[in-house]
């Protein structure tokens, strides 16, 4: 079975960062188990051998090369966005959210390492059939159990009827929902993102939340090349002004918006204080957004 390379590398970066950082930006204690020792080592070896792609002229052994690649290129995006969306989810749960929907779930592990505060949620993971099959196989092979409150949905978000299997699986349009679209907008055709937000706006009640990251025109060429090399080219870049227009038209108001400088200051500062050599910074050209469904009023 052909696996999604972006999902594999993201899981590897979370696992390596958790294992090696003195104070992780975000810890994912299941990521390494999910990959398994063999694949974890194999991905690390392949990454280290690709140092010339990331940093031509780099001097050091394979261990140094891998540390450089993960710290500067692979880990900032997955660990930063995990820190952001899980913090936002915790706040939403404290305010009454009872459903979690993860779109394009990939190899996300939150549903299998749930903290106590999240265990009353009903969690829906949605991804394409091949991605779901690969994930379920890994869960089985690595002995990670699936909690009773987790449901896997196979659907393609570019299918106009993608919400049908979600609703058939028990997703309620009447329960306050937190929807995570982190790591997704990069790979959607530009016309699809508004359609997905439309569908969510029609199926989530007032007080529900959306959280997502999105690439801007400041995205660097190496980031674009890395996505292309993984077989998932960047399909669209967005500006904050576009988001300010797109979201309210669909019933969502921007509650929080973070630039790379904001993300670095909030989520990377503590890590950098204890590990200043090298420091980590949020991915350039990528913003985070939290939006809330609001009644527009009379």
Verbal overview:
- The chain is an alpha/beta fold and 298 residues long.
- It has two domains: 5-74, no CATH class; 76-293, Vaccinia Virus protein VP39 (Rossmann fold), CATH 3.40.50.150.
- Helix content is 45%, strand content 14%.
- The protein is built from twelve helices and seven strands.
- It has helices at 5-20, 31-35, 37-49, 51-54, 62-74, 76-94, 129-142, 163-168, 192-203, 221-229, 240-246, 260-274, and strands spanning 99-103, 122-127, 150-154, 177-180, 209-215, 252-258, 286-293.
- Strands 3-2-1-4-5-7-6 form a seven-stranded mixed sheet, sandwiched between helices.
- Helix 3 packs across helix 5.
- The longest helix is centred in the first third of the chain and has 19 residues, at 76-94.
- The N and C termini lie far apart (53 Å).
- 38% of the residues are buried.
Provide a quick synopsis of the model.
This protein has 298 residues and is an alpha/beta fold. The chain has helices at 5-20, 31-35, 37-49, 51-54, 62-74, 76-94, 129-142, 163-168, 192-203, 221-229, 240-246, 260-274; strands at 99-103, 122-127, 150-154, 177-180, 209-215, 252-258, 286-293. 45% of the residues lie in helices and 14% in strands.
